[in-house]
Amino acid sequence: MDIEKNIQLLKQNVPEGVRIIAVSKTRTLEEMEIAYNLGLRDFGENKVQEFEAKYDSFHQDVRWHIIGHLQRNKVKYIAGKVFLIHSVDSIRLLKEIESQYEKINQCARILIQINIGREESKSGILIEELEELIKEVELCRFVKVHGLMAIIPKGEEARNRQYFRNMKEVFEGFKLKKINNLSMEYLSMGMSGDFGEAIKEGSNMVRIGEGIFGKRINNNNL
Ligand SMILES: *Cc1c(COP(=O)(O)O)cnc(C)c1O
Predict the structure, then answer these.
(1) Nearest C-alpha to atom 11 of ligand 1 is from which residue?
(2) How far apart are the C-alpha atoms of 113 and 128, rounded to whole Å?
(3) Is ligand 1 within 6 A of the CB of residue 67?
(4) Which sequence spans correspond to the domains of the chain?
(5) How far apart are the C-alpha atoms of 178 and 195, rounded to whole Å?
(6) Which of 32, 103, 145, 171 is least surrounded, with the fewest CB atoms within 10 Å of its CB?
(7) Residue 100 · residue 124 · CB < 8 Å
(8) Which residue's CA lies nearest to atom 12 of ligand 1?
(9) Is 205 in contact with 18 (CB distance < 8 Å)?
(10) Confidence class for position 203, pLDDT limits 50, 70, 90
(11) Separation of CA 66 and ligand 1 centre (Å)
């Protein structure tokens, strides 16, 4: 098992100030333990059921990140338990998060997922839908937006960098505006294959699965 080596190498390649999310979907608690012991405290899951099982059996001091498409009927199971929901991609989902967090009287921390490559198969909102979503965010009492997330189309470096650059521009543009319930802190972009490019273009949160834990066997997602 090379998890230790992978993490040491990753830490050399990721500057301070860029947060590493260990994407632990499909991985065992034993594998996650190795990452934990090397100091990683941010773990990303894309399935609510898997998250719930791990939440109960893993260390209590980790920050959990929901990174996959989130169904509205699953929000109640994660409310109050996660550090950050990366994948908010509709007004209906936003409203469900608001209502579930109201019940527990807590504030949800979310990112808005942008479908920057305009791929039909991918979730995330289109850039032109962002303003409408943010109008709804401003009305919320139990949700705060902390930034943006994107999964870019598979492609070669120059095009990847263009997508990352577009995201950074949107991110910076909103930083200048004063918007209720919104502060652009996290720009979550870059995965095992392209995190270097993402960081060069301004990412401060990378989501790394295979680059830490090795190839996924049951790889239904992505
Ligand atoms: C699986 C996944 C990742 C990690 O992908 P790797 O290629 O294994 O690094 C990142 N982001 C999301 C949303 C994912 O579902």
Answers:
(1) 207
(2) 13
(3) yes
(4) 3-212
(5) 30
(6) 103
(7) no
(8) 67
(9) yes
(10) very high
(11) 11
**Predicted structure pTM score:** 0.96
Q: Report the CATH number of the 3-212 domain.
A: 3.20.20.10
Which pLDDT tens digit goes with each residue over 27-52? 999 999 999 999 999 999 999 999 99
Give the number of other CB atoms < 10 A from CB of residue 82.
Answer: 19
In the block, which residue shows the tokens 């650059």? 165
- pLDDT computed for residue 217 by the predictor: 80
The two tokens of residue 10 are: 């990753």
The rounded distance, in Å, linking the Cα atoms of 198 and 204 is 9
Please name the amino acid found at residue 97.
Answer: I
**Cβ atoms 80, 104 nearer than 8 A:** yes
Q: Is 199 in the pocket of ligand 1 (CB under 6 A)?
A: no
Residue 9 CA to ligand 1 center (angstroms) comes to 18
Give me ligand 1 centre to Cα 139, in Å: 31
Q: Whose CA is nearest to atom 4 of ligand 1?
A: 209
